[in-house]
Each structure stands twice: as C-alpha cells, then as structure tokens.
Amino acid sequence: MAEAAASRHRLLLLLLLLLISSSGVSTARSIIKTLPGFPGELPFYLETGYVGVGENEEVQLFYYFVKSQRNPALDPLLLWFSGGPGCSVLTAFFYEDGPLSFNLSYSGGLPTLELSKYAWTKTVNIIYLEAPVGAGFSYSTTQQGYIMDDYKSATQTSEFIKKWLIQHPEFLENNLYVGGDSYSGIPLPMVVQNLYYERKRRMSTIELEPPSFKRNLESTKEIKYAGKVEGKKLEDKKRTEGYILGNPQTDVYMNENSRVPFAHRLNLISDTLYESAKANCNGDYINANASSKCESDVQEIKELLRDINTEHILEPYCTLSTPRKNEDKSNPRRSLVENHTDFLSQFGGETPQSCHAFRFVLSKIWANDKDVRKALYVREGTIGYWKRCHSLVAYTKDVSSTIAYHQNLSMTSLRALIYSVAGYTEEHTKDDFTLTYATVKGAGHIASEYKPQQCNAMLERWFSYYPL
Asked: What is the DSSP letter of 389?
C-alpha cells in the first residue's frame, strides 16, 4: 500500500514537472520576515508574490500566503478572496481571520500591528488572494486586462490556484478549500465548480490519485478547544475538499428584495407600512413602477433606513463632517476610507472607538506607506493610491444568481459551510454532499469581522468534523 502511494506520488511530481515546463507559468514570490508597524520578526511564515493569469499572463494577481502555525503539512489549505468586487483581501487579513490586526489606539503616524488572538492561520494554511484584477495590489500590464466580469474573474481565480500549486507542490496533498465573503458569493461557487469538474475530467484519463484532495485526520486528532466540546467527532470516510462562504451574495434579486421583510422583522419599519408595501408591491420591492403606490411605499422605507448602519443595525452610522454630494448612504465605508483626514477630525484627535469604520482608515494609511510596499515586495509603479475597496469601472456583473451552481455542487462529495447573522445552525446532506449553514449571534456584515472569537471556534470545529 505504501509503495503504491509512493509510486503515485512520484507520478504526480513527474506530471507537475511536465506541466511546469509546458505551461510557461509566471510567478514571483518572497518570504517576509518583518513588517513595518510590527515589533521584531514575524512569528509565522508569510510569503507574498504574483501569479500571472489570463491571455499572455498580462494579469498579475498578488497574494499573501500564511502557513498554519500548527502543522502545515497536514492542515487544510484555504484559498480566500474578498468581495466588492474590488475589495482588497487585506480586509480579511487584518479585520477578519488573518494573523495580524491593527492596534486601534491610534494617535498618528504609521499604524502599529499586533498578533490576532483568533487567527484562522493558527490551524489552517491560507492563501489570501487579491482578486479580481484591480483589487489591492493586483494589476494588469495592459488596459485590456482590467476589463473583467464574473465569468472571467472565476476563470482567472481557478487558473491562479492551479499555477500556485504547481509552484508549491508540497501542498498538493493537503485538503483544498476555497473561501470568501460578501460578493465572493458570486464567483466562488463558479471557481469551485471549475476546479471540481476539471479534476473529474483529468482523473477519468489519468490513473493517478488527484492532488490536494484527500488526507487522513492525523492533524485534527489533538485539537484543543477553549470551550466545551459536545457530541462525538463525525465519521470521516471521504475526506474531500469543500468551500466556505461568509455573508455571501447569492441571488441579486432575492438578496435585495429580502431587505424589506428583514427590516420589518427588526422593527425598523412599522407593521402598517410593511403591510401596505407588501400589498401594493405584491412582494416585489425591486421592480416598482415609478408612479405607483408601491414606489411610494418603497421610497418611504428607504428614507427610514437612510441613517441606519445596515451592516450592523445596533452600531452607530458614522458620517463625514461634510458629506459628499449625492453620497451613497448605503455604503458609508467607502466615503470614510477615501476621506480619512476629514473623518478623524470629527473626533478632536481622539480615537473614535465607537465607530466601527474607523479601523478601515488604518489599513489605508498602512498600505500606502512606501516602506510597507517595499517590505511586501509590491512592484514599484504598478499601483497608485491604494484603496481598501476599489470601484471597478470596467467590471461587468453578468451573473445575477449562483443558486444553480450550488445545486450542481450538491451532487458532488464536497463539504460546504455557509454562515451569516442570527444564532442557529442547520445541516443538510445529499448523498456524499454536506452543507452546514450557521449563523453567528450578534454579528454583522461580515460576521468574522464583528465576532472573530465565535467564528474562529466555528471554523475550527467544522474543519475538524465536529458538529457546530
């Protein structure tokens, strides 16, 4: 048995060498020992680099790779990218699940960094990918390369992970997961489907165990949890890869249309107004006729919600001293991050701890520092002013729903974890497919941003095949 496995492994490596020699893979990577703002050497492995994708590899996708601090050889490998589309993955790295976070006691200068207590990278290898092109430090060598849509974004992300694994063959046998949040709910299921069915096609012609998809449970047997573990470890007979989605966009119409009944359940609009809107709009609050009673009700609802922080209704809505003309009230974060000087001036030099959006100002200051870019090995002249979330003018949202992709994936042997806000869990199975739906009580958008301790415990249990 061991000899057969070794033989398959040698065949796999030979196949990879052939792929490398014939694919013209363009990559560049650097190991980061120190970072501006962090005292001393980093106590974890951090690598940054570029992988060329697309026609002639004109698109250069930037990534941060953090090895698991437990057992990199056995722990899962997770590819993670943020939403937007166009938001930097530093959002996840610093504010959600990465190994570092900002010290919020800020008084000027370069923000300082500290170790994150609830980093997923303590038990998971994570590739933080700046995707699509235009997000973070990813760039294109041609203007044509910036023309992007959902299908192309998914294709290039799939290409990225295949090329990354070619350059990191030591992770070929780790379980591979793909994860993301918010708008990533659109391209991510497409990426997973691309990878899964391409693997199936290849395995139908190659007598070789597929790379990075099966692994024993040795790495999870000794996990210790801070809280009490109830129930027994689930049986694991088919350890395959899967995907993770946090607060995902899934169906544009359903997501937007559900805002009205959701606001009613939270007592943000009255019973009278809700019942009127439901009757006049016949349950469709998106396609209201401009002169109809439905439109009148919808506009009244929008006005009531105008100053509500829709990402977490119990937190204050932070505005600028002098809001921009026609400012998009539904997205306060963007204006705050773009005008951090005006924003900070509202608080008289004191750290505005009560405003959640304040922390995003720190990443803007940090990522635009020339020493930071040098330390990260960002290619000089490729990126102008860094923004946490870019508005990608050349991006076409041509996929309005990924429900069909989830239905396709439910016919596979994958595992899926989808989490949001509320406070309960459900598990659905179909043959070898398992979907765990979890909600995190008291969280906002994004859940791991508001409740890092709870989300870390959730992920650790899920990766270890414990019930949530």
From this structure: B
